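check this one:
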Amino acid sequence: MKNIKIIEVPSEIGAGTRGASLGVEAIKIAALDFMSNFFIHFPSEKIPTENRLLHEPIESPYAKRVKGMYTMYERVGKAVSDTLKNSFFPVVLSGDHATAGATIAGIRMAKPKSKLGVIWIDAHADLHTPYTTPSGNMHGMPMAISLGMDNKECAVHKPDSLTLDYWNKLKNIGKICPKVSPDDIVYISLRDFEKEEKNLLDRLGIKKISAKEVRSKGAENIVRSILRYLSDCTDIYLSFDVDCLDASISKGTGTPVGNGLREREAEDLVSKFMQNRKICCLEITEVNPTLDKENLMAEIAFNILQRSVNILMMN
């Protein structure tokens, strides 16, 4: 049986829409509504945020609040690394997806010799950089940070030196860069990306599996083929962004997109992955209850969380 620790990261400085910092509490409310005492069972740690920066003018338009993001990367990276070193399984509940790069950094800091696989269940590629970003929002950047990529080939901006200084610090956190290799990444339900990201995906030959493919082949087969694909990896990080779900159900997130997974498909995928012993960390992110009706998104997230943790407890 695995010892589980919940790491709460109610940060939303990487998002473009306000409200994701309330996502963690919304998931706890969902647990209460389901009469579950889930959150009493496990030790948890709440990471202090830099959300006060949301009230301040933006210094770096191509990597908004990048200084605060660096602070968050240091905090989250350390928390994840310490959790793993103390033989706990980190379950990260984060506001926006930006700090997922810090989760990856934390895994690599705890396991510097590991070959880390990443399963990124998300509508978006999150491969933007300060050179290519259409919005400047850093939740579109964690995969580029983890890959140590600038994608200058597709540059549309000239970021200032302060922005680039912090960007380079983010990539090098834990003194390991890159944190992950393109061959060790699989995207599921990816369907909304800009041409600069497509260029990178194609250039790096990163594996992608659509929601349609999950539907036609079934979760079981998809999970088996992905684990085969990542068989060289010693550890695998699973990142679940709720916008992987179809827009008809994913109202409660900042960036809903059509043609996504159904609730049951997402739940089956995650729970089947969680049966594999190489999975070393689970993250659930981007629940935004201010955009939701009846806390539906948080309830779906909680169902996935509870099922995943039950499997960990049995394994």
Observations:
- The chain is about 40% helix and 15% strand.
